[in-house]
Hints:
It is built from 18 helices and no strands.
Amino acid sequence: MSPAAERPPLPREVRVLVAVAFFVALGFGIVAPALPVFARDFGVGKAAAGAVISVFAIMRIAFSLPAGKLLDQFGERLVMATGIGIVAVSSVLAGVAQSYTELIILRGAGGIGSAMFSLSALGLMIRMTGPTQRGRAMGMFQGGFLLGGITGPVLGGVIDEVSIRLPFFIYAGTLTAAGAIGLIQLRTTPLADRAQIAAAGRTKLRDAFRNPSYRAALAANFADSWGAIGVRSALIPLFVSDVLHRKPIWTGIGFLVVSALNGATLLPAGRFADNVGRKPLLVVGCLVSGLGIAVLGAEQNLGGYIIGLALLGLGSGLLDVAPGAIVGDLVEGRAGPVFAAYTMSSDIGSVGGPVVAGAIADASYGAAFFSTSGILGVAAAMALFAPETRGRSAQGPLQIGDQIGHGLDPDGQPNQVPGDLQS
Length: 423
């Protein structure tokens, strides 16, 4: 089979979701630097100011499973539009909040809407792509988030100088743009609405957990978020100051190294996942990320800092593709709770990483980095003993490869389903 035949073109919906992801991440990046500063204007302490950020992630975790059930009940289109709308409205209201209580309640509501958007976007991405497309689709989707996440904070720093409330309104504007793109461009997309998902059946969460490939995907997603999001964001700025004794610009340089190598890895990793398999990316991604963080703990100097973060960026790029593609390979029909547990694994890692690793770092930065490397090592071991999921059924009670639930053949083309299977 020729390379062109192995790599069928991606559906139009993938490009739409990449644009939606960019605008969502752009707005979040703009508002994020303003949140703790705005909270302090209400006379609260540092912990309370930090809670304004934490409550968003906590409500994402708390509402993920209910959002998964909504996804099964109403389909991706309605859940996505509603979720983006909730975040947009809560952002506008947060911009005019008159008290800390109002601000934290509205940020919590935004977390609920964010959970709805994330699940519906993931569900749509998986439903509209076949096994030889899914890795590339995941890479492009994560690239949209990455580009928006890099651009947003740069703009946010400038906008904050004009008004500390203005970022909230701009965030609402970028969300409105994302919602408009989704509603207009996806209006003719055959999404998984109620009749379709009822006919396709349901992937139960308990069956998914029995599958070693699903458990490995969750472990890798958790470990990646723990290290690449939580520990990096919480410890690197302090490590640069306390251990390296460098100016804050070196924190920015380190973050840029991670982001640049992460972005450069996404598309090649997606092609590899589609042409060769997901498992090698999962194993290597965990090992390379773990090695990078271990280098930070072992070589506490500027050279080790740059090398360690470069390895972390490479490994994280692989882990932005492989776990989501594996989950997509494993689901059939309705799978909202299965998607919810997957996104929760990331959120729990990004929330728990800073707290646990930060507490360990009070005694030793090296111990904090090595413990994080160990978590990634455990995920690598789970991935090593999990079956490959690309293009064949995984071993275990959850079967894959039958694309009836997606309405697509293995190359992502429309699949004609016999009438007796539709009833």
